[in-house]
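Hey team,

Filing this mostly as a record. A colleague (T.K.) asked me to run one chain through the structure pipeline before their review meeting, and I want the input and output archived in the tracker in case anyone asks later how it was produced. No errors, nothing strange. Just documentation.

Input sequence:
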Amino acid sequence: MITYTAPMWVGLIIGFIIGAAAEAWGIANPETLIRLAKWEDRLFLDCIALGFAIGTPVLFGLYALGVGFHWGPKPLYVIGVGLGGVLFGSGLALSGYFPGSIWMALGEGRRDAVYALFGAILGAATWTAMYQDPAIRKALVGTLNFGSQIIGATHPSGAEYLVPWPGLNRYSLFGIALVYGIIMFLIAYYVPRYRGGSRSCLRANIEKRVTPVEMKMHEDTARYLTDGALPYKKGSLAQKLNEYYAVESNVTRWFMVSVAGIVALTVVAEMFLHQIFGESTTDSWIAGHLFMPNFAYSKIVFKGIGWEPYSDIGTLMGSFFAAIFLTRRFTAFRNIIPPSWAERFGTNSAVRFLGSFGGAYLMLLGARMADGCASGHILSGGLEMALSGLEFAGFVFLSMVLVGRVYYQRRR
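Output structure:
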């Protein structure tokens, strides 16, 4: 096996690339994820599916050729992962943030992200306190714990190899990855990005036109992405990103595919260099050092922490770079209220900050309970075909959509 372990500071570069790419998508803006919870804009779902379609066959193809990776599928403890997913999805719907997008939003200069960060650290601290109780630990982590499993193989803890299930080998895993990638591409290809836009990417590619509904959604999306942002000139890169590329209905167009490929292949490179991409561990690391250095969970985090703090700082830096020099979406910490939130709860900044704080608290509590977040479980885990990641993603999306319907029902 060809293996390599990079120094910790390389995490800054990894985070920078992913932060800049995701900011260009629009993921740093909480309205993007709130609209996902309302099932109005499936950008995140479609682009992550595209990333899996690109990255998973590359990952397992290289592995079949003898390249070793620092695998990191999270343990499949069914109860804790499922309940953590429910809390995560509920908090995401309320706040519009997941752990990594908080750092992106700080780079974009979003004021409510400051409150989300404090809520996230408190959520991580709450799980650290809960983990001290042996009964809670056994019920959530010890019950129905099947270890680190991916589709077709088991991952021994800390190993740079996989143990295929009986009758399978590395080449079989590559074949499974190809089928998995095709399924993920079909999800992105057939699920329309916008609610009300009946056309999937298939129809968009055939018909070569933009419908009035899609045009309205394009304009509305560009409006919220640039609310309170820096000015930009007509014909500039920022105008193209904000008014054309990032609002595109057809996620199989070059911009969306390019960004999905950059994110996915960066995660593959990261797994070769050091570890999977994950971001919520940093909050437990901060909470442990600030409040709970002698707690059992803090000691586990201190011992196992990788370059997550570096990659989180890199994510912030990458988002800041993109928001200043590419998209011009930097808001300088003005009081910007997401439109969906304002429509439902009003424009009182204190209420929004409470929602941002409380949602991030639930989201991080769920992330640490499940031992992973949108980065570690959904992005990295989904790319690895980890069973825990697929379970977590299922519960996140289900709870996010159900709770989003309750949160954002219009006032009569």
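Quick notes for T.K.: The chain has one domain: 10-407. The beta strands are 75-77, 145-150, 153-154, 163-164.
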